[in-house]
Each structure stands twice: as C-alpha cells, then as structure tokens.
User: Fold this.
Amino acid sequence: MIMLASTRYPAITPSARPPLVIAHGLFGSARNWAGIARALAQHRDVVAVDMRNHGESPRSPSQGYEEMADDLARMIASLGGRADVLGHSMGGKAAMQLALRQADAVHRLIVADIAPVAYSHDHSAIIEALRGLDLDTLASRAEADRRLAQEIPERALRGFLLQSLDLHAAGGPRWRLNLEVLAASARALSGWPRVDGRFEGPALFVTGAESRYVLPEHHAIIRALFPGARFVTIAGAGHWLHAEQPGAFLAAVSDFLDG
Assistant:
C-alpha cells in the first residue's frame, strides 16, 4: 500500500466545491500539469499527483490499473473521501477504473484522450530508448536530446520525456521513472481490465481532433459504462491536448466542473 506524492494548489477563492485530483499519463508527472492545476484552482483545491513509479511517488513492483485506481482512492480518502477526478491517458484509465469500482469516491469524472479499451500498440520502443540512454556520460539535457533523437525523432515527444530526467540527482543523472517496471507492464498499460459496474455520475471525455486514441466507435463503449458521458473535441490538438491547446482544454474542463 503506497501513498502518492502530490502537489497541492489551494483554492484562490475557497468554496464548498470538492477538490480536483489530476492524474497524469505514462512518462508524466504532477509537474507537467502545474499550469492547468493553477488555472483550475480558482474556486477549488487542486491536487496533482505523481502516479506510482513516476516522479517522486514510491516505486512499486507492479503498474496495474486496479492498483493505480486504489492509489487514487487513498489520495481522495486523505482529502475527505470524495473528489472530482481528471485523468489523462494512463491516468484517465486509472480514473475510469476508480469511478467504475468505487463510484462514491468520484463526484465528476474528466477523461482526457483515452477510451476504456485495449489498444494494439504499446510504448515498449520508447521505454527501451530511455533505458538505453547512457546516463553516466551525460553532461546536459541538450546532449540527452541529441542522443534520444536517434530513436525518438519527434522533438516535442523528446521534450516531454526529458522533463522526467533529473540531471542533478545525488549520485548522478537519473530518470524519475521506474523504467524496469514500466517495461514489464507495457502490455498491461495498453490494455483495459474487465470491470463490472457503471458510473452514473457526470463524465466528460475530452479528445484531441488529431488524435486516434478515442474513435467514433468507442463512444458506444464509453456510454455503456458511463451513461452520463459528454464528449468534447479540441481542434488543433493531438494526444497531449492539454499542452497543445491549453486554453480550449481549460475552457471545456472549467465549463464542465462549474456547470
């Protein structure tokens, strides 16, 4: 049993609204959501977590969605027992699992660019590229970017991944990721554990117009599990919609939370 590391953003104008818990995606951390979290903390406390095996959260030998849902449940229990939950990608699947398995813990659910389905791809190639980076001879982030470019040509993706590289750690550079466990869990992270139940509460599914993670044929699957689901598509955004179109993303999330 672990307790996730988190960054808390107290409400600028406190209200009776429940807190918002933000769960990042694979290879991410709470720090990736700092700008979004601050903007959403106008009238509610916001807590951005580091998921297990990411950031400053404890290392664990497993990375299953049921376990990640339990991690979120413990965080919500520490906040009073009920919260709004926003999850992106891996964090979105964990948030959906939480809502389906422990519905009383979730007031409103926001899922960013992921569906409750198994995907045919995984991120093994990215994990192996990160594991293959020789940290002992690394002098700068620019040098890390140059080396990773041989395996990961997308500049924006490299920039995102390198946010989890700690160049100034005691003992030398290190990843703020448990790459061994993520590698062993790659297939499970692309999957979707079967779970009985439905979440009857308000749910918003926000997708990037240029992303292929949530397809039209997924809508019926989503509505079967989340009958109150609403869908919003963000123009000009792909999978990292909150970073690519933060204004539109914030507007959609704020309207839903305050509606």
The CA atoms of residues 9 and 157 lie 27 Å apart.
